[in-house]
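Run log // design_07
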């Protein structure tokens, strides 16, 4: 008989090739088999798979293994288990399962606790040394110390793991602490509070001692101590030892140190008065030998066992002779003790800040705490030019105590505190000391004097004494760039490469609901008390500040700085004398994730310097030279601006903004400074000035004059024409002590009898006082000269003086403020110089004296009482043109005058004319305060001065202000506006006056460059300000007056107000409206122009012209003045108090007739001339200032201080840390920021520099910097990003794995086209990065350059992560990192998107799914949720677990060997053993020993499976073959037990091989068992069973001896089917339920045995299912009718789970078309069973009887198709909402009208009704493989009357 043979030598499946092409040795399908290809067994032989053995006993419901890791180095494995009740990390090592970390609280490990049914697989797990790291892309990346966690778990699987920190005495017995999540995060919390500094500027210690310390106790021989003796203070053996013995009232915790010298002074009175005598006076000097505090006392006679706190042994060094002569009654003595300062200054030349950091148990260091304030204690202001530096800016610190570095919430795994130190001018951070919990205890706790000492260490004391500026090692420079660690909040991928942790596809930052905003302003610092020269922390004035806020999460991650203009402010210069601080408050809500916040500050100015002015000199050009010490030369250059901060000779600031640009700098004294003006001679013409200037007199505006030689020499003058030195002349009024400027002589020529003098510059107008009556002088003859005039001649002599040595010189502009504050020391209060000269006319109005404006004042005094222009009023243009302004004998010009004239209105301050009028009933009037009035001339306000005295005023005006605004009214002065939209019509409503030209600022500008017409008046206007001095020329009383208040400036219109113009304009518009209407076309403009002949137009034109011309304008200065005194009294604020001016009683003038008068405005006519000023005859006002002394004087020891203006770094957006961390609970409250950047000395000087010396250290703005960002801050998922940590080196003890320093290059981004990063794998020294769509190699610690042929060449680099080199092939890992498995250099993974399984090896990427399984994986992978990959080292197989099975790839055969029935949660290999995990438990595979149990096969996780193989017999595929038998060579066959035949081999069941199916094109069959004969197993092929009659081919029947049957009958054998009925109700069926009125479950019966059904066979497909529904009826005593409709939906097959679509949704289950043959209501009469009848019953359960039910139905069918069911939306009845499931194609409704009479009593609870519904349906016969059907029943309701 022909035989076809098949073996399995290829050992792999092939599902790709056509069955005819399948190679020999390959097979189609295999389950749970392995093909033996080793030398020890037959090639190609099939084998079962050994079972797996359970190694752990994790008895947790719904437990799942979510991560595994093999530690090959230690031959151990770790697995991560999660369940609803606990999370665990477990270890398997040396056949022992050990709990590493048990989290019964479910708040530490947090293994994806938001989705316990489908937890995340943790694919990023690594171990380095004994540290286990992992990340789950859900919570913080974590790390544990394996050994200590195992110790803390104590082999207990049910108790929360305890924290073990041996360095803190935290273990299972002491300080028991449960482990928390914050203990195991990779990111480590840093301290949030600043160190508290306790500085000491003086180590001098004083104390009181009440004790007889000089008497030696009897046990030591007695007597009194002498020099050289050693005594104990206090001595417990002393006779007077008691509770008061010892030192008291000393400063500090420990009174003295060994080696201190002590001075003792005995008090005779016992009071503290004598304490001040120390140290100059003392009785005993002693030296501390040892500190005995806490030491044992050996002497048994001692009343105490140990020496009390602050007990010292002291050697007596000196005893004062006077003391020894006193009675030795020591017991009653009261002593003072003094210890002098023996410690030198430290940190003398630094601005130092301190901080600290944590060191954690595993060696990680936290980032720094916020740095402290400066450890700097300035002294009192002491800045003399001789010293050339500010002694106040030296550090007076003697010792420093650091406190509060142990925070209350310090984590238990912090084992060390590093105290840190940083200087402001250096980025370096230094280690001061290391504080540990178990350090030696050498600090005494502060206790009472007599209490025994309690010793502490720095940790428990929470303080550290810094006594030296010797600092230890420097920290790495990158630590200052590490305000926090940018550890990702979560990450998907993790790997260790180059001893660093690398995370991929990570999340950072946070989302904000709104942009944070804060408001900030400056305030006076809390607790500030002004004190002269006392330094105070402050904010530098004249600076702009901007605050920003930074939020921190619970682990210290920080946002960038958020700031806005609302947090910006400037501190004005006048605040320099205060201690300024910042007040701020957040005005937006805090982010929900924020734990705390910090404040950062920006101040962008560069450095500035203070300079102390040595001397000041007048320059010949009128400016000044200032001398400074040469040591300060580098502080300035010619681009520098200087700001005066402090007054000379006073400890007061200069509030005004005195800022001057340096004009010139000289390193040596300029010639003009060296040149002294030496007086040659002084001449007054031998008493007659007319003789001296008998020739040409000096005249204003001229350079030439003549000096009579003989007269000049008669006064002692030399021949000045022969002098070689440069000469100058000065004019002086010897009576008034007024001097002129120095006028340098350009040339002198003697032409007898005169010296002809030519000056370099013209004589200035301010020198007009050299004439008696300059204003009325026309001839300028000698007789017109001032009789008190003297000529002084000086020569310039250059002298090198010591005062020039060591100085440099700076020239700046000289103005009134420098005269006031800088030249003050050179000014002589009794010697004046004229600064300007004013001829003041006087204009008054007749009506002024009748005005109510005058309640008091100074009026013109004359014999006739008349005033100028008598009989005239000044209210018209003609009055002003023809009278008032006719100055100087009808000269029409712009002049100054004392103003007592009428004005029509005032110009508004807004400079908008329309603001000055309002409309009242169509008439325009001036706004209140801007209307007409009168000038007041010179007048007083009684008691109007600040001190309550009379206040005098003078109104001084300047009129005829050019230019004209408009010469004439013109048509363009009218603006008609634009035509109405869409037409050519003008509207009167759009018309307006074009008043632009009338509002130009220059129209009222006098003495300003704005108006060049009158800029020449600047010399006058600059003197019209506070503190200027003036006099009335000719006053024989020589009274001088000072402007003692602010001068008010008013802009006045003389005779025409703008209200007049507006009224004329309104009249004109009315005329146009009458002529043209409200609108008119453009052509009518000509008509409008023709209206110029109307009166309305002419009135408007006249009013406009009158108002606009310059004659109508004047500027008035209202000047308050008082009597000037050289040294006035001062009020409490330091303001001078001047006496009232009272010019009537303090002035006297003499007219030409010799008559005396006292009023400057006296209008008395004497000899045809008015005495005082008129509009024709001015009187003079001269402005003065004190003149400098003729001899230079040295500036005082309290010099003026200048400050350089810094240059702004406007482009820098750098903010500096300005605070510690504020708890988020304080957010929104107002806080004061304790940040400062200078010290204020209360006198205007602010300093930020040591000693104010050039190039010295300055106060930094902060130790930590940050910035804002120019993009939106939000949570960022860097799917393509890599980020790495610092390095780990166990040899050197470095663990920087928590350090992610954002300021360094720690990130690398992968090309986003590769998709997101899913998995990282370190191979050799490269980092293999698996992205969704690409696999790349990232070079680690190296880089590549490419040769010309394109091949890379590696080079060394500092980059941790170098270039990215993609592998060939467009493959990635999709989103299934769990599919990754590695073995040596190979890595296996899947690409779900491409339907591929891949291997990465040395030859690149190979799609191993193409080895016979391409189509299979392409179809299957896309429907998989998870793809669990693992590698079986024992079998050298990559196992890929799919949803329903596992498939293995065998490297030996380069193919897929078999499917496996086990479906593990995870799998891995360790030391050549393969392990998997199920329900959180560990299972070992291929175990021949199975823990001593019998070896089994194909039993996985306790469930037995079969081995199967499908092969193809494809020999001669074109031939039709008939198969009779099958045989195989191998192990035991399956045996089916059968006791009814005559065979003996099948007496009992045996497991073994069977042939499940053999199929050809024609038919199929099977062999349930084989029989062994001659070493082979064989049997005949049997045909398949047929269950459906349509599948039976009766023609193939053959009956021996009978033939082919003509007909056939089939016996129907019903298939048992499970029926489930599910009930749904619409929301309004609230009264219907499945429980009765007593809350008991109503009877629900399935498989109801209906007597009408044949045989009551439960297997019959005609099944009756019965449901009962109940409801409440709420009416009482009324008929009740209610319709309840029931609908049945066709069934669905629930035998198998639904299939999932590629998009993740599920396909609906198959619909089962069930025919509802009977669907009725049951209403049997009693006494039927409760389950078989509908009935009504009352509230007590008594049956009321049957209920009438109208059966509406039975069997009506609606064909709706398959659609989603819906329900009525009760909130909107016209709409629907999704319902349960889908409606099938058969939908059969019935309805029941439930009717009965409710007999319940009114008010009682309602009666109840039950409705019984039997449902009969038929299951189709042709539905295969179905054993469970779900049927859905829907209820709807339509109430009739309830």
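design_07 sequence
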């Amino acid at each position: 008989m022909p035989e076809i043979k098949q073996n399995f030598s290829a050992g792999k499946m092939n599902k790709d090739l056509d069955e005819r092409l399948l190679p020999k040795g390959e097979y189609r399908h295999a389950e749970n088999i392995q093909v033996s290809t080793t030398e020890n067994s037959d090639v190609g032989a099939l084998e079962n798979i050994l079972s797996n053995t359970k190694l752990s006993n994790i008895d947790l419901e719904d437990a799942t293994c979510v991560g595994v890791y093999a530690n090959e180095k230690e031959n151990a494995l770790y697995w991560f288990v999660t369940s609803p009740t606990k999370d665990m990390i477990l270890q398997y090592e040396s056949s022992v399962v050990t709990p590493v970390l048990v989290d019964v609280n479910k708040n530490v490990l947090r293994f994806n606790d938001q989705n316990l049914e489908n937890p995340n697989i943790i694919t990023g797990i690594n171990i380095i040394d004994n540290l286990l790291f992992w990340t789950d892309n859900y919570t913080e990346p974590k790390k544990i110390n394996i050994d200590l966690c195992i110790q803390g778990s104590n082999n207990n699987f049910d108790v929360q793991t305890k924290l073990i920190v041996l360095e803190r005495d935290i273990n299972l017995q002491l300080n028991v602490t449960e482990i928390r999540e914050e203990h195991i995060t990779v990111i480590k919390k840093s301290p949030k509070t600043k160190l508290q500094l306790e500085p000491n500027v003086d180590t001098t210690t004083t104390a009181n001692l009440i004790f007889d310390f000089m008497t030696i106790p009897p046990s030591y021989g007695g007597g009194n101590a002498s020099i050289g003796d050693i005594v104990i203070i206090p001595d417990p053996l002393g006779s007077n030892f008691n509770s008061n013995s010892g030192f008291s009232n000393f400063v500090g915790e420990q009174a003295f140190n060994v080696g201190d010298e002590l001075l003792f002074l005995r008090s005779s009175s016992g009071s503290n008065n004598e304490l001040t005598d120390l140290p100059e006076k003392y009785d005993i000097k002693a030296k501390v030998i040892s500190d005995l505090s806490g030491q044992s006392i050996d002497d048994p006679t001692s009343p105490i066992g140990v020496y009390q706190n602050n007990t010292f042994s002291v050697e007596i060094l000196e005893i004062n002779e006077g003391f020894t002569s006193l009675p030795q009654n020591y017991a009653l003595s009261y002593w003072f003790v003094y210890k002098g300062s023996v410690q030198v200054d430290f940190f003398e030349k630094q601005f130092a800040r301190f901080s600290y950091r944590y060191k954690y148990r595993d060696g990680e260091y936290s980032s720094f705490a916020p740095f402290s304030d400066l450890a700097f204690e300035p002294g009192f202001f002491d800045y003399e030019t001789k010293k050339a530096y500010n002694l106040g800016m030296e550090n007076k610190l003697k010792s420093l105590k650091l406190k509060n570095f142990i925070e209350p919430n310090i984590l238990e795994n912090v084992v060390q505190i590093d105290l840190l130190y940083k200087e402001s001018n250096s980025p370096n951070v230094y280690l001061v000391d290391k504080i540990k919990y178990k350090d030696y205890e050498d600090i005494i706790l502060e206790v009472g004097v007599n209490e025994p000492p309690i010793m502490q260490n720095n940790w428990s004391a929470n303080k550290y004494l810094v006594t030296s500026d010797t600092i230890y090692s420097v920290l790495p420079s990158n630590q200052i760039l590490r305000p926090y660690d940018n550890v990702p909040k979560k990450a998907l991928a993790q790997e260790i490469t180059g001893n660093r942790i690398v995370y991929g596809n990570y999340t950072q930052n946070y989302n904000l609901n709104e942009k944070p905003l804060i408001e900030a302003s400056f305030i006076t610092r809390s607790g500030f008390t002004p004190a002269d020269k006392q330094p105070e922390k402050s904010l530098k004035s004249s600076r702009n500040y901007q605050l920003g806020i930074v939020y921190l999460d619970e682990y210290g991650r920080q946002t960038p700085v958020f700031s806005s203009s609302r947090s910006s402010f400037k501190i004005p210069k006048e605040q320099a004398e205060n201690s300024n601080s910042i007040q701020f408050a957040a005005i937006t809500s805090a982010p929900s994730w924020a734990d705390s916040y910090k404040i950062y500050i920006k101040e962008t100015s560069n450095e500035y310097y203070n300079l102390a002015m040595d001397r000041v000199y007048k320059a010949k050009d009128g400016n000044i030279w200032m001398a400074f010490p040469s040591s300060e030369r580098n502080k300035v250059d010619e681009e520098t601006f200087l700001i005066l901060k402090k007054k000379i000779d006073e400890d007061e600031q200069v509030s005004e903004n005195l800022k001057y640009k340096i004009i010139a700098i000289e390193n040596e004294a300029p010639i003009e400074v060296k040149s002294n003006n030496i007086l040659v001679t002084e001449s007054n013409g031998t008493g007659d000035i007319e003789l001296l200037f008998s020739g040409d007199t000096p005249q204003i505006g001229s350079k030439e004059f003549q000096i009579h030689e003989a007269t000049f020499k008669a006064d002692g003058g030399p021949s000045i024409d022969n002098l070689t030195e440069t000469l100058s002349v000065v004019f002086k009024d010897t009576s008034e002590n007024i001097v002129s400027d120095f006028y340098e002589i350009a040339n002198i020529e003697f032409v007898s009898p005169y010296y002809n003098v030519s000056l370099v510059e013209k004589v200035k107008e301010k020198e007009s006082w050299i004439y008696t009556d300059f204003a009325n002088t026309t001839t300028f003859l000698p007789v017109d000269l001032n009789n008190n005039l003297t000529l002084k001649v000086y020569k310039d002599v250059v002298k090198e003086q010591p005062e020039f040595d060591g100085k440099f010189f700076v020239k700046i502009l000289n103005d009134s403020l420098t005269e006031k504050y800088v030249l003050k020391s050179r000014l002589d209060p009794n010697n004046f110089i004229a600064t300007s000269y004013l001829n003041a006319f006087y204009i008054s109005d007749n009506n002024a004296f009748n005005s109510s404006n005058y309640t008091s004042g100074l009026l013109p005094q004359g014999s006739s009482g008349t005033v100028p222009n008598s009989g005239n009023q000044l209210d018209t243009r003609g009055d002003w043109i023809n009278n008032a302004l006719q100055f100087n004998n009808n000269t029409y010009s712009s002049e100054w005058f004392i103003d007592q004239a009428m004005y029509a209105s005032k110009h508004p301050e807004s400079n908008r004319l329309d603001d000055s009028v309002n409309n009242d009933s169509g008439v325009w009037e001036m706004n209140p305060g801007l209307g007409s009035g009168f000038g007041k001339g010179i007048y007083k306000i009684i008691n109007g001065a600040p001190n309550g005295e009379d206040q005098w005023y003078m109104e001084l005006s300047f009129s005829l202000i050019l230019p004209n605004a408009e010469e004439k009214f013109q048509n363009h002065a009218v603006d008609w506006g634009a035509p109405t939209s869409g037409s050519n019509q003008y509207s009167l409503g759009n018309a307006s006056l074009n008043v632009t030209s009338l509002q130009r600022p220059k129209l009222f500008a006098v003495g300003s460059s704005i108006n060049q017409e009158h800029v020449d008046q600047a010399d006058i206007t600059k003197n019209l300000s506070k503190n200027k001095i003036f006099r009335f020329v000719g006053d024989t009383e020589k009274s001088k007056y000072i402007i003692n208040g602010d001068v008010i400036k008013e802009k006045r219109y003389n005779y025409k107000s703008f209200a007049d113009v507006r009224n004329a304009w309104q009249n004109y518009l009315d005329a146009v409206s009458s002529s043209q209407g409200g609108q008119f076309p453009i052509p009518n403009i000509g008509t409008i122009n023709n209206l110029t002949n109307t009166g309305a137009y002419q009135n408007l034109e006249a009013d406009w012209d009158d108002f606009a011309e310059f004659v109508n304008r004047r500027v008035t200065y209202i000047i308050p003045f008082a009597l000037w005194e050289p040294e006035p009294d001062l009020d409490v604020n330091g303001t001078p108090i001047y006496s009232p001016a009272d010019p009537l009683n303090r002035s006297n003038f003499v007219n030409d007739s010799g008559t005396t008068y006292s009023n400057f405005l006296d209008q008395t006519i004497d000899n045809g001339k008015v005495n005082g000023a008129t509009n024709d005859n001015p009187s003079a006002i001269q402005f003065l200032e004190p003149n400098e002394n003729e001899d230079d004087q040295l500036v005082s020891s309290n010099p003026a201080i200048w400050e350089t203006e810094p240059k702004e770094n406007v482009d820098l957006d750098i903010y500096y840390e300005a605070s510690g961390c504020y708890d988020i609970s304080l957010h929104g409250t107002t806080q004061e920021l304790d940040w400062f950047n200078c010290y204020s000395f209360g006198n205007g000087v602010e300093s930020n520099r040591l000693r104010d010396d050039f190039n010295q250290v300055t106060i930094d703005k902060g130790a930590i910097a940050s910035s804002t960002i120019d993009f939106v801050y939000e949570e960022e998922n860097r799917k393509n990003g890599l980020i790495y940590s610092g390095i780990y080196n166990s040899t050197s003890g470095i663990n920087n794995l928590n350090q992610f320093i954002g300021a360094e290059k720690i990130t690398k981004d992968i090309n986003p086209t590769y998709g997101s990063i899913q998995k990282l794998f370190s191979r050799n020294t490269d980092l293999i990065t698996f992205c969704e769509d690409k696999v790349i190699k990232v070079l680690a610690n190296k880089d590549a350059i490419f040769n010309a042929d394109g091949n890379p060449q590696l080079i060394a680099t500092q980059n941790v992560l170098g270039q990215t080199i993609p592998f060939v092939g467009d493959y990635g890992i999709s989103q299934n990192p769990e599919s990754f498995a590695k073995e040596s250099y190979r890595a296996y993974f899947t690409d779900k998107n491409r339907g591929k399984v891949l291997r990465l090896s040395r030859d690149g990427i190979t799609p191993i799914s193409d080895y016979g399984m391409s189509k299979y994986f392409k179809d299957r992978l896309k429907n998989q949720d998870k793809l669990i990959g693992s590698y079986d080292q024992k079998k050298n197989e990559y196992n890929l677990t799919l949803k329903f099975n596992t498939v293995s790839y065998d490297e030996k055969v380069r193919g897929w060997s078999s499917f496996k029935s086990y479906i593990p949660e995870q799998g891995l290999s360790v030391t050549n053993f393969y392990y998997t995990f199920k329900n959180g438990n560990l299972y070992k595979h291929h175990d021949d020993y199975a823990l001593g149990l019998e070896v089994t096969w194909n039993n996985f996780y306790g469930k037995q499976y079969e081995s199967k193989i499908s092969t193809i017999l494809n020999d001669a595929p074109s031939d039709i073959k008939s198969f009779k038998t099958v045989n195989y060579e191998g192990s035991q066959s399956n045996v089916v037990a059968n006791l009814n035949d005559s065979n003996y081999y099948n007496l009992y069941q045996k497991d073994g091989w069977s042939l499940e199916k053999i199929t050809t094109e024609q038919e199929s069959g099977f062999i349930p068992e084989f029989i062994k004969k001659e070493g082979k197993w064989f049997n005949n092929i049997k045909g398949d069973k047929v269950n459906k009659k349509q599948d039976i081919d009766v023609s193939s029947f053959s009956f021996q001896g009978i033939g082919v049957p003509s007909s056939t009958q089939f016996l129907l054998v019903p298939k048992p089917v499970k029926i489930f009925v599910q009930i749904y109700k619409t929301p309004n069926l609230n009264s219907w339920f499945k429980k009765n009125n007593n809350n008991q479950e109503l009877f629900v019966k399935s498989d109801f045995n209906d007597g009408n059904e044949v045989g009551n066979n439960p297997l019959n497909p005609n099944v009756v299912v019965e449901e009962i529904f109940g409801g409440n009826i709420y009416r009482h005593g009324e008929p009740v009718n209610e319709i309840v409709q029931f609908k049945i939906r066709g069934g669905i097959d629930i035998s198998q789970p639904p299939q999932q679509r590629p998009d993740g949704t599920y396909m609906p289950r198959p619909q089962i078309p069930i025919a509802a043959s009977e669907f009725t209501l049951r209403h049997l009469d009693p006494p039927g069973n409760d389950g078989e009848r509908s009935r009504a019953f009352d509230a007590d359960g008594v049956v009321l009887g049957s209920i009438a039910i109208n059966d509406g139905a039975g069997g009506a069918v609606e064909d709706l198709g398959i659609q989603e069911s819906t329900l009525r939306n009760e909130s909107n009845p016209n709409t629907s909402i999704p319902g349960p499931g889908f409606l099938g194609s058969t939908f059969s409704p019935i309805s029941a009208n439930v009717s009965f009479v409710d007999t319940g009593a009114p008010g009682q609870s309602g009666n109840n009704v039950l409705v019984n519904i039997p449902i009969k349906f038929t299951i189709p016969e042709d539905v295969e493989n179905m054993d469970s059907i779900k049927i859905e029943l829907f209820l709807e309701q339509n109430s009739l009357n309830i």
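The chain has 16 helices and 125 strands.
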